[in-house]
Specification:
Rossmann fold; globular; DNA replication; 5 strands; DNA_polIII_delta; Zinc Finger, Delta Prime, domain 3; single chain; 3 domains; DNA-directed DNA polymerase; alpha/beta; 332 residues
């Protein structure tokens, strides 16, 4: 069944554990990932992975080993509660596997949760979920959060804004990527520790992200130009200057998303780029397919950095991701 965005917001808050599954798809990998996180937390609770009630499956792995999805659906764990099999980065290469899993699903099986990129209307995966009587398919558009979504995010962070603050937050939501906006809310939450008063415009101004510094631009160009040997020294300089790891990932995601936009639409309008010619060269060298992979790497790293159970050194995680991207960019 189709699940329109206006209905998806309510469903994501209170999913039906008796449904067969859900397909979440869209061109913005970060928005899709955030919605998937929200849905799985509401469906399974906060401790699903520790209790082995959530099985993660990469589409590439599933293509090599088709039975693994059905095994995950039928497996019964030691912990009570709803279960889910999460298939990431799906496409029509695994359409038959997903169609068979939807057909074989029985009440009591784990729910099938699938994420994908921007699927065409002719996609077999999309058609399978839309045609199913007890499964949903919902698109995630690149629209900024509306007032209701902003209020929900603030409520989850236990922040009560003054009436005149919502206009500023709505404007920031329009110009920031969703990951940037959530990071800002997290920063505000920390900023307000010990302050029981309402959220003011001054609080927002003190925590709103600043523009990209030239030093951060340096590392973005080093990675985008596949200069892996230069990453270590530049990262050491940035760390000494106190640059935040999450900030680096946010800026890198923004840069590679711009490159992907250029590669996907040659000759189209380019905005938000200081060095237009340099960005066009980088986009041409990468190509749209590799840039999609790069954005997946950055999204996964961003989600790892924000994970409550993450204890590894954050700058080391970012440096490893940047080296991986530089090596990917150097391949022909």
């Amino acid at each position: 069944m189709k699940l329109p965005p206006r209905d998806a917001t309510a469903y994501f808050k209170k999913p039906d554990p008796n449904k067969t599954g859900l397909l979440i798809y869209g061109s913005d990998a970060m928005r899709v990932a955030l919605k998937r996180q929200e849905f799985l937390k509401a469906l399974l609770g906060a401790n699903a992975e520790e209790e082995m009630r959530l099985t993660r499956i990469q589409a590439a792995d599933l293509r090599r080993d088709p039975p693994m999805l059905l095994d995950a659906l039928k497996a019964v764990g030691f912990f009570p509660g709803p279960r889910a099999a999460f298939v990431e980065d799906a496409n029509d290469n695994i359409a038959k596997i997903l169609i068979d899993a939807l057909a074989d699903w029985q009440p009591g099986d784990a729910q099938i949760v699938v994420t994908a990129g921007d699927l065409k209307k002719t996609s077999k995966v999309l058609k399978a979920f839309e045609a199913h009587k007890t499964a949903f398919a919902t698109p995630i558009y690149d629209n900024p959060p509306d007032r209701a979504e902003i209020e929900r995010i603030l409520s989850e962070a236990k922040l009560s804004p003054e009436p005149d603050v919502m206009g500023s937050l709505s404007e920031l939501a329009r110009v920031l990527d969703p990951g940037d906006f959530r990071q800002m809310v997290e920063k505000i939450t920390l900023y307000k520790i010990g302050d029981t008063g309402p959220l003011t415009a001054e609080d927002v101004g003190n925590c709103a992200p600043t523009s990209t510094e030239a030093e951060v631009d340096d590392i973005l160009h080093v990675v985008a130009e596949a200069r892996a040997g230069d990453i270590g020294p530049v990262m050491a300089k940035l760390q000494a200057q106190g640059v935040n790891a999450v900030t680096l990932i946010i800026m890198a995601t923004r840069h590679f998303r711009t490159l992907y936009r250029i590669a996907s639409n040659p000759g189209g309008q380019i905005w938000g780029v200081r060095d237009r010619d340099r960005a066009m060269r980088q986009a041409k060298n990468w190509g749209a397919a590799k840039l999609e992979t790069a954005l997946t790497v950055l999204t996964d790293t961003d989600l790892t950095l924000r994970s409550a159970g993450q204890h590894a050194p954050t700058m080391a995680l970012v440096e490893r991701a940047f080296i991986r991207l530089a090596m990917l960019g150097s391949k022909r």
